[in-house]
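Thread: phosphoric acid mono(formamide)ester complex, take 2
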Amino acid sequence: MNKEYRFQHKHILEMEQFSAEDILYVLSMARSFKEISARPIKKVPTLRGKTIVNFFFEPSTRTRLSFEIAAKRMSADTFNISASTSSAQKGETLIDTARNLEAMSPDIIILRHPSSGSPLLLTQHVNAAIINAGDGTHEHPSQGLLDLMTVMEHKGRIEGLTIAIIGDITHSRVAHSDIIGFTRLGAQVKVAGPTTFMPPHIESLGAQVCATAAQAVEGADVVMALRIQQERQHDPLIPSLREYARFYGVNRKLLELAKKDVLIMHPGPINRGVEMSPDVADGTGSVILDQVANGVAVRMALLYLVMGGEKGGDTQ
Ligand code: CP
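Output below.
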């Protein structure tokens, strides 16, 4: 790492904004924060006095809770609002809502929203740091970072690995962040899915499109399955879930084509028996719950960094 390096991002909007050096810096920071979650008293004063708002317009278990846990472990004050309990229900626009939040002086607003680009829009209307917790089909940068951290932890490197991502690439913001992150650190990313789930631009992100799941998985170091994002599809894009599972479900037979020490990943939530069989999700090589654990560490690092933290700062 260049000694002069400084993390210079006020907002976390997409993996695309990060250089390889930025990514490696966030991951090294996340590794240093991870140990805090193993302590008997899981709290440091790093963000004492900071106010963090979790603003979620879509359901979430992992992302919302891990941002909240990350903030609380760093002694920040956290507040949660959702679309269903906010005045968005009464017709208030996103910008008006954000301006009203701003009037209460939050330091960070974490936004999940069904519209791609909504976190960027907020940066133009409020002074708080904005973190994208998943926007439409665009990106989910903190998920991409925790996926990179998990692979790095288990394989010791990203460069030279083959990552197979199977499923609904079109509607998956996770796939977009992962393809950018993994390729930026020198991995080869292969994708496979029904043609209706394969966006035309995906090769421009650096992914290799495979005709079958078997072609993508052959020789892979990592196999990641994606949930079918039915909430983003207006018309059915596959004939049936049973056929999908037959051709694109990640099961033990498919994994015989991968490397012997293949890592199995899924961003969650899993539809067991559709995109992944239960024995694979719970079996040898599965690092799905490590992904969740690393989500807390990565989000601690991101909160710290957007508040101007520097390595060697107050992480005690
Ligand atoms: N991976 C992920 O974004 O999960 P949640 O929808 O539960 O936050």
